[in-house]
Amino acid sequence: MEDGYWTKFEAWKVDSSEQIPHGVRYSITLHDKHNKRILGYDNAHAIKPKRRNYSAKKKTWDHKHKMESVEDYEFESAGRLLEDFWNEVETILAMK
Fold first, then answer.
1. What DSSP designation does 3 have?
2. For 17-35, how does the pLDDT look when each residue is reduced to its tens digit (9 = 90+)?
3. Taking the alpha carbons of 41, 47, 50, 52 in that order, is the dihedral positive or negative?
């Protein structure tokens, strides 16, 4: 990609589970020319839920990393995942 940016896609079919009900384990990332991850969507590990008074303690596995922050991602389908990823890549690269 321009200016040395590159992407990496990994996906595996897995048995459905409570953590991965859609049966797809994935990691999709955007890196800069220094190999630093700029953006990543994955479900490799649970993330801690944001603390709210009296809320359920849902462990979310689908999430995205944007620089140093991590936030929930609502997985709908593989096609939607790719669309969301590429839309965010375009936004990030347009700001560079």
1. G
2. 888 888 999 999 999 999 9
3. positive
